[in-house]
C-alpha cells in the first residue's frame, strides 16, 4: 500500500500566539513524545480491525507514527497536517528507504512509499478517490480551549470523502484525576493567564468528544479508555517532549521560554524516580462514531 501525505491548509484551532512557531519542535515530537500514544493507536487499530481492506484518512497526522502502524497492518493510508516540518518527518518515516532505528519504524513494518501533495485527493482536481473507510483524529481534543471548533471544521471537509458507515475516531485526555500529567500541564494555564489565550491548556471534559461528533452529524458507536503512561529518560527529555505538544505555546508567549522551562522542570519533580527517569501514568479516551 502507498501512503499519501497531504498538507492541511487550515491552521490548527487556537492558532499559536505571536512569536511562537508551533513546528519548531517537530523533531522532539517525533523522537520523544509521539511514542507515548502508541498504546492508543494500537487499541484503536485493533478495535476497528484495521487491515488490507482499510482506507485510512489520518487528520492531523503529525510525524506519521500512527499511519505507519496502520500501514504495517496492510491499510492504505493518507495523512493530513498543517505543519510542513511534521509532514517532512512523516515522509521520512514512511519512506521505504527509512532507517530502521527505534524512532524510524517498528520492527517488521514495511511501507511501499510515500508522496507529499498540497490538497486532499479529488478536492481540487475534480476526481473523487475511493471513499475512506476510517477517519482518525489522534491529536487529543479538549486540551486547548476552543480546539473542538477547529476539529469540526476539519471534519466538515473530510467527511464527504468517507464512505457511508465509515468509522470516525476522535481522541482526548481521560479524567484529570487519572492523568498525572494534568498537574504538570496546569503550569501552562497559570503562566498563560495574563493573555487569557484561547490556546491555553484546560482539563478535559466528560463530553468533549461526543459534542464534536454530534456537531459533525456523526452517530456514536462505542468508546474506550487506554493507559498511555508518559516515560522519559530524564527531566530534560520530559521538558522537551511536553513542550513539543504545543500546549505550552501560550505560556511561552505570555512569559518566556526560560521561565516555562524552569516551572515545568519544578512541576515534574514529584514524578522523577531515584534513577532520574520521569514516569507519569495517564489515561486517554477514544470515541468511535459512524458516518450516516
Key phrases:
alpha/beta, globular, 10 helices, 10 strands, 33% helix, eight-stranded mixed β-sheet, two-stranded antiparallel ribbon, 292 residues
Structure, briefly:
The chain is an alpha/beta fold. Helix content is 33%, strand content 22%. It starts with a strand and ends with a strand.
Please provide a written account of the structure.
With 292 residues, the chain is of the alpha/beta class. The strands form two sheets. An eight-stranded mixed sheet has the order 4-1-3-2-5-6-10-7, with helices on both faces. A two-stranded antiparallel sheet has the order 8-9. β2, α3 and β3 form a beta-alpha-beta unit. The longest helix is centred in the middle third of the chain and has 12 residues. 47% of the residues are buried. About 9% of the residues have low confidence.
Helix content: 25-40%
Element-level helix/strand string: EHHEHEHEEHEHHEEHHHEE
Strand content: 15-25%
> Mean pLDDT, as a whole number?
83
What Rg, in angstroms, do the CA atoms define? 18 Å
Please state how the strands of the largest beta sheet are arranged side by side.
4-1-3-2-5-6-10-7
| Distance between the first and last residues' Cα | 27 Å
Largest beta-sheet characterization = 8 strands, mixed
Low-pLDDT segments: 9-15, 99-118
> How many beta-strand segments?
10
Count the DSSP helices: 10
What gross morphology would you assign? globular
List the helices and strands and how they pair.
Elements: E1 4-7, H1 26-33, H2 38-48, E2 55-59, H3 65-72, E3 76-81, H4 84-94, E4 115-117, E5 132-141, H5 147-158, E6 162-173, H6 181-192, H7 208-215, E7 219-227, E8 230-232, H8 235-243, H9 249-254, H10 257-267, E9 278-280, E10 283-290
Parallel strand pairs: 1-3, 1-4, 2-3, 2-5, 5-6
Antiparallel strand pairs: 6-10, 7-10, 8-9
Helix pairs in contact: 1-8, 2-3, 5-7, 6-10
